[in-house]
Amino acid sequence: MADKTRRHQLLKQLVTSQDLHSQVEVADALRAAGVEVHEATVSRDLGEVGAVKIRGADGQLVYRLAADPGPSSARDRLDDTLRRFVVRVTSSGNLAVVRTPPACAHPVASAIDLAELDHVVATVSGDDTVLVVAEDGTPGAQLAPELARRAGVPPP
Question: Which member of 11, 47, 82, 103 lies 3.0 to 4.6 Å from 151 by CB, making a disulfide possible if both were Cys?
Fold first, then answer.
């Protein structure tokens, strides 16, 4: 059981820190870290740790953890996600409008949702756009500069 626990911990680290596109790449990364594993084990382990495939910054599918890490942990990773994917932020009414490369809006919306930011009610993502809905009384023009700052893009 200790081997499985160690393998799962390492697997979580690998899919969080690297762009692994296939089970073969995951198995190779585990082997490079000193863990001999068969592809069938990798397949089972990926499911057990909650890894799913999402579109990466380059548009290719990569493994990431799907489990909700909780708001405090998610806030720690929010800035990294925004810096990786956001190209522009604007606002309209009670919305902050976040633009990303094609097929990259979902990870941004998910990161914002998981971080449970103050004054944010919800997000709606399309292919390359995320609408960040502000709570009543909060204009999108208040949220947009904060999101732009976190993303490292010019403010609106």
Answer: 82
